[in-house]
Amino acid sequence: MISIRGKTKGGVEFGIAKSYAGIRGSAFPGNPIILKALKSRGLEAHSLMILRHGKVCAEGWWRPYGPRVAHPIFSFSKSFTSTAIGFAEQEGLLKLEERVVDIFPDLLPETVSDNLREMNLYHLLTMTCGHDTEEPSWDHPDWIRRFLAHPVIHKPGAHFLYNTQGTNLLAAVLYRKTGQHLLDYLRPRLLEPLGITGATCAKLPDGTDMGGGGFCVCTEDLARFMQFVLQKGLWEGKRLLNDRWFRCACTKQVENYGEKDWGRGYGFQFWQCTPWGVFRADGAFGQFGIAIPQKDAVVVITSAVEMMQKVLDCVWEFLLPAMDDGSLPGDDAAAARFRRKLSHLEIHPFPASCSGSNEALFQGKELIPEKPLCGFDQLIGIVGPGLVEFGGPLTSLGFSFGLGEMTLSVKQEGAEFSLPVGMDGHFRTTETPVGDYAAQGRWRSYGVLEIEVRRLGVSLSGARLLFRLAADGSMKLERDDILPCESSGSFSMEPVVLREAGRN
Question: Can you say how many angstroms the Cα of residue 60 is from the centroid of all Cα atoms in its chain?
């Protein structure tokens, strides 16, 4: 789904005014070349929002993702955590030169090294706390004690190491200083003034916030946040956070060593970019908030990709050169062409696939696995910040067909729910007691049904399920993982035999 917001007379929606300002008509909206580039390079985008001068000039979502779907943003979360620390410093609750050993005196190892003794909040913010490797105890209830016991090989400030646990520790620092979790602390200071609603943050085993990667936020709220950062703490003419913080946070504080856009320097949980003066928040699998001060522009992208640099390359090659320094009048004809081209924008669209003969083979069947089978969410695969419980094992799957869609009935230990599946070339979305899903299907051949299922809102997910009907009435279930990460909650599954309930 794509929409282009036209010029208004001072109109405001979601706190962001609407305009075409500053994107050449040859690129936007008449010829969306960045969208074509993402597609041609095989990059699965979920949403795109472009702002100039604080105004939305283009926005789009690839079905089944939509405007109000909270998207996992992984390490983009770090920039929110950094901003919370900025507010706490502004209020005098902490100082960046404050030592970690003084904040957690009850969790220190028996022997405190000189390097550990020097580690302070500035070092955590800049990923220079002195570790040579990241402490791995994500799922341990005593992870803070383990972090502090992890060898501090380098003098703090002298060595950059990307360190998610260090950002998680910043969230724990905030809790120690304020007694509040990240979202509770940010709500009156940042979220409510910006109109950000629906944001969530996962918790670590000890109940502290996963500040290094646990946020889920919708696209427009990410755009609000990045516009606030671009404006250095100003919102609707009111200063919320001092600009000194952003002069530090969004500029190069330390050298880092990586390829292309991951080797341009690091601030306070913000990355420097290849184009001069551009900086970004980013998260795994292509979650980007890009600020372009020289163009007074913000670009927000959510996606599911492994090669994140390819997404940034599309922005540098196709979008950035299309940004004029002046403004342009609205072009209703170009906007209409854009909407016509992109009104059915979807990821992995299936062709419409109706077959009465095939439907008769599956209609009304309830199938049970011949051997124990995992829960449904594990079957479709989950990559996310720890917000999804896989649930009990599957006990049966059922099929029923209607006009242009089918219903997949799922029974698993502790839950029953039904998923509408689009058979007309479009996803169907539904809310269930155990989560929100989207699904589309098609007939691959006689007796072979393919269904793609996604879990929405709190994770990246996706798998294609292939049901092959055998001559004896049994069915073989196969799956194909479509996630951009091998370490998902899914698994390598051998084909599973399903038999009709009530038959031997």
Answer: 15
Which candidate, 314, 266, 259, 263, places its Cα nearest to that of 286?
Answer: 314
Paired residues of 74 in beta bridges: 215
Angstrom distance (rounded) from CA 192 to CA 175: 20
**Cα separation, 169 vs 192, whole angstroms:** 25
Q: Cα–Cα distance between 240 and 230 in angstroms, integer?
A: 13
What's the rounded Cα separation, in Å, for the pair 212 and 452? 30
* H or E element in which residue 147 lies: helix 143-149
Residue 309 is which amino acid? Q
Reply yes or no: is the peptide bond before residue 64 cis, omega within 30 of 0.
yes
In the predicted model, is pLDDT for residue 242 greater than 80? yes
Confidence of residue 30 (pLDDT cuts 50, 70, 90): very low
Tens of pLDDT, residues 90-137:
999 999 999 999 999 999 999 999 999 999 999 999 999 999 999 988
pLDDT tens digits for 344-399?
Answer: 678 988 988 889 999 999 999 999 999 999 999 989 988 877 667 778 999 999 99
Task: State the DSSP H helix or E strand holding residue 176, giving kind and residue range, or none if neither.
Answer: helix 164-178
> How is residue 291 annotated by DSSP?
E
- Find the distance separating the first CA and the last CA of the chain, reported in whole Å: 47
Instruction: Tell me the average pLDDT across 152-157.
Output: 98
Q: How many CB atoms lie within 10 A of CB 241?
A: 21
Long-range contacts formed by 402-410: CB under 8 A, 24+ apart: 404/352, 404/354, 406/359, 406/362, 406/441, 408/439, 408/451, 409/366, 410/376
Distance CA 21, CA 5 (A): 11
Please provide residue 53's backbone torsions phi and psi, each rounded to the nearest 5 degrees. 55, 35
Nearest CA-CA partner of 437 in 376, 384, 498, 393: 376
What domains appear along the chain, each with residue ranges and CATH number?
1-69+218-347 (3.40.710.10), 75-215 (3.40.710.10), 356-500 (2.40.128.20)
CA 225/CA 235 separation, integer angstroms: 10
Whether the CB-CB separation of 361 and 348 falls below 8 Å is answered with no
Of the candidates 34, 35, 43, the one whose C-alpha atom is nearest the C-alpha of residue 316 is 34
Residue 326 binned pLDDT confidence (cut-offs 50, 70, 90): low
Alpha helices in 91-163 (DSSP H): 100-103, 114-118, 121-125, 143-149
> Can you tell me the distance from the alpha carbon of 252 to that of 11, in angstroms, rounded to the nearest whole number?
36
